[in-house]
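Final report, closing paragraph on structural work. Over the funding period we assembled a curated collection of sequence-structure pairs, and we close with a single example.
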Amino acid sequence: MQKEYWYLIIAAILYGGITAGGQFLANLGMSLYEISFYPTIFMGLFLSILFFHRRQYPLQRKMLPFFLVFGLIGALTILCQFGGIILGVPVAIVAFLLYTQPIWTTIFGKLILGETISARKILSVLIALAGILLLIRSWDAEGAGSPLGIILASFGGVFLSLWIIWGRKSAVDNLHYMTATTGWAISSSLWLLILWPIVGSFSQDSVIIRLSADFPLKYWLYLVLFALLSHMIPALFFFKGIRKIDAFNAGIILLFEPVGAAILAFIMFAQPIGFNLVAGGFLILVSNYLAIQKQH
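Its predicted structure, as stored:
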């Protein structure tokens, strides 16, 4: 198996820390915007320090339109996936709608990147969705929540797919993975700030919109660690891996993220690992096997 597949698998597992780490920070009383914005801007700052010392990663003016779109996609992904929860949609249903991204990645990969849609890919998507359904047990959720929340969560899956597509497009355009990661992080941070007053016009709830800097030092250390371990490091692995892996395969491999999240939830919060995790994880492994096997 190509080393690039391993890069994406490592990225997906580390991305599982976003859910567990986000829950940890929320338990400390941080708001949606604090959890979303600070790790993203920290990642951008850390990478910029590395980036500007090395001239082999040029960030040119002609790249600006690409990164403006990429950053907007990233910011909207964050806001949509959490918007469903804010509007009362059960977490399990939000997660299922978010991880429908392989469907959209298959479609957008064809439309934007010209990737083929084969019977093997369709089968892989169906098995992956069955695995996600088992993993999060969305049928146990009580009530679907508001229609607007369902719409936002559904768009979360679409935007996550577009994020994968734009990541692949960065490789097609021959952007260095360090350049792609840095540009995306900085642009996403700027877009989160631009969207902040717009989100505030819909809700003044401090749990959502508060963006305070009045934290104890240890909270800032938690945010830094969260930025490094669950944002920057997996992003670097992702952008390096997707240079040689098509968007569809990357989308399937990233389904390891909820598996990693479940394992971390067991370690950090003593949440049990049941049959649904084992069965769902197995199906996701099968879908990955089908996705990455070479066509004969």
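The mean pLDDT is 81. The chain is about 75% helix and 0% strand. We thank the funder for supporting this effort.
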